[in-house]
Structure formats: C-alpha cells, structure tokens
Amino acid sequence: EISLEVFLQVYWEDPRINITADLDDSEHLELTWEKDQKFWVPDVYIRQLREMKVLSLFQEMTSVRLYRNHTMRISIGATVIIKCDMDFVLYPLDVQKCAVDFSSYKYTIADMKFRWRDDPPLSFPSDFGGDGYRLPKYVVSFAAEEEMHIIFYGEGNHSTARLLITMSREIRSHLFESYLPSTLFVIMSWGSFVVMPEVVPGRMVLLVTTLLSLVTMFDTIRNNSPNALELKCIEVWLISCTLFVFFALLEYFIVLFGIRYDKHWRHKAPDLNHSLGNSHMNSERLGRLFHDSKVLPQDGHHNSNDHKSDSPQNDDPQRQSDINAEAGRGPDISTGQGKRKFQLLTQHVILYVGSQRGKIDQVSLALFPLCFILFTITYWISYISESRKSAAV
C-alpha cells in the first residue's frame, strides 16, 4: 500500500452552463461546494483506490471554480491509500512500479475520455525535488503517461489517465546494516584457520559465536522485511554467509577427528606393517609349495611305478594337507591384502588431516576466501542485472 496526501484537480467542459453573472476582469468564478450540486460532476473512479479521506481543518479542503469558456474545475485535498501488486524477490534491490488509473465508472470511452492537461499535469512542493522525492530509505518518482489507456470493465471499454509511481530503495542503508556486518562475520570465521587446532575452546567459541550471530541476523531481517513467495535477495546472501561459517566449523571438526586418531593410527602402524609382511611371506610360501609340488620327468624313460612314486598323491600326507590349505586360502589372502592397503591409505589421510604436518588449514585459508569472492561477484552481477531488467519493464 502507498499513502499519499494529494490535491486532486479535475477539469471538464460543459457547454450547457450559461454564465449570466458579470465576472468583471476575473477569469473564473469561485463557487461553494455543496453535497447536492446543481451542475453535473464526473464520476471519477480510481481502480487501485483502497481508501480516501478528504482533508479538513475548519472545513473540508474543496474548491469549485467556473471559467469563462464553460470549463469547470473541482479541487479536493485528500489522503489517498493506493493498493499495488509488488514483488519482493529482489529485496532490497527491487524496483516497484505502481500504476494508478483515473477513469469513469459509468461512462464508456464513447461518452467520456480522460487525459492529462497539457500544462504540467503534476506539480510538487518546492522541497519535493522535481518529479521525485528522496526519503531516508526510498526514492519515489511520479510520471503522468501522456498516452490514453483503455481498460475493459463493467459494460465496455473505459478511457483511463494513468499515473505511474516508481519506488526504489536506498541500498546504502542495507549495505551498512546487513551486507557489511555479515561479510565481516564471514571474514572473522577465516581467523579460525590460523589458530592452532589444539586450542579447542578459542577456535570453537569464535566459530560458534559467529554462526549464532549470523542466524540471529537472518531471523531479524526476515521478520522485518516484506514477504515474498520465493527466497529474497538478502536471504540468499545471509544463508550463503551462514553456510560459509558452517563449512569452516565442519572443517575444524575434520581436523579434530584427525588429531584424535593421529596417535591411534601411529600406534597401529607397526602392527599393520607387520601384518603386511606376514601376508607377503604367506604368498611366497604358497608359491613355493605350488612350485615344489610340480614334478617334472628327469628323462624320457620311466615306468608307471616311477610316475606314481613321483606324483603329489604319494608325497607326505602332512605336506599334501599344507598345499591344499594354502591353495584354499589363496582368494582370502588377496582380499586381506586389499583391506590392509585400504587401512594404510586411511592411515595416511588421517595423519595428513590431523597431524601438525597436515595442510588442510592452509588449504582452507586460501580456498574459503577465494570461494567467497567468487560468490560475491556472481551474486551482485546477477541480482543487479535482474534489478535493472525489472526497472526497464
């Protein structure tokens, strides 16, 4: 809704009026406004009007004037409340346009036509600033469209004189109240990357306090900003800043996890290496047993008895059982080696993350600012272009 204090002046020409009184040298005659007028008055209809209240002090601020050329003018001082459809998705970069249509409710375009006067259709007080007015948080401008609009309602097409009200916000106040503090909170969260991971209270207090401050700011701004069907522009910014701080906190959790299991994995490293050595020895033993069990003929002359005596079936039973056992465990040994290699890889990753030789904080100290700068550039370019497109429509 838009509330305005206006002096609405309506001119029309009625040739049926005969001026019998002598006007002397004056161009017009002041008449008294009465509820039951003896002359015809147009039925001015404002489509977007929600409420209108005539201003009054000792009496209502109304004036009726009759000119020599059979032209009459009614002037009324009133407080007007206009309803407009607004979209706040781009808030606070949004530009709102509200069209106010003046027409007749009963008479169609065949009977009555509305248009703005040739002399300045809009006049403003000297402190208004021309055709625009700058408020603490808004810039409001008014423009009377010269072309006549035709709107269909009731029983036909109606002539309409349109006033266009354009409202934009002062972005500076939002920059200092919302964007700058949230940016500083994100920059403060980067300070946790230069704090030693072992200083858990200091680093946790910094990150958690920053995160809670951003959540509180987001809740306050959301409650004090107009509603929209989608995420507003400033909400996208605050949610993104909150996620940057949350990811910094998540990065510290990963570092703490590495520190916690650093000594554990270092202690298990000799056992893992010993296990890998044993598995290697077992594989060599298996290969040797299979090699020994393969009997090659010594020469080309041998009988069936020699062949039977040299075959594996006639070897020592204990040796034969060892061969079968090792052969049966062949796939299990390969699977065990894969698991141990994965454990070694996990060990090195955790040592990289948690030990003082790890580089995750150093990488984050460079990666987080770079990502935030890229996000900021993308954010402002996309939303400023959308704001200009909506203003040009």
From TrEMBL:
Gene Ontology cellular component annotations, sorted alphabetically: plasma membrane
Bias-annotated ranges (Polar residues)? 311-323
Question: Where does this polypeptide localize?
Answer: Cell membrane; Membrane
Question: Which InterPro entries does the record associate with it?
Answer: GABAA/Glycine_rcpt, Neur_chan_lig-bd, Neur_chan_lig-bd_sf, Neur_channel, Neuro-gated_channel_TM_sf, Neuro_actylchol_rec, Neurotrans-gated_channel_TM, Neurotransmitter_ion_chnl_CS
Please tell me whether the keyword Nuclease is annotated for this protein: no
The primary site where this protein sits is membrane
One GO MF term attached to the UniProt entry: extracellular ligand-gated monoatomic ion channel activity
The record's annotation in Gene3D superfamilies points to: Neurotransmitter-gated ion-channel ligand-binding domain, Neurotransmitter-gated ion-channel transmembrane domain
The name under which this protein is listed is: Uncharacterized protein
Species: Ranatra chinensis
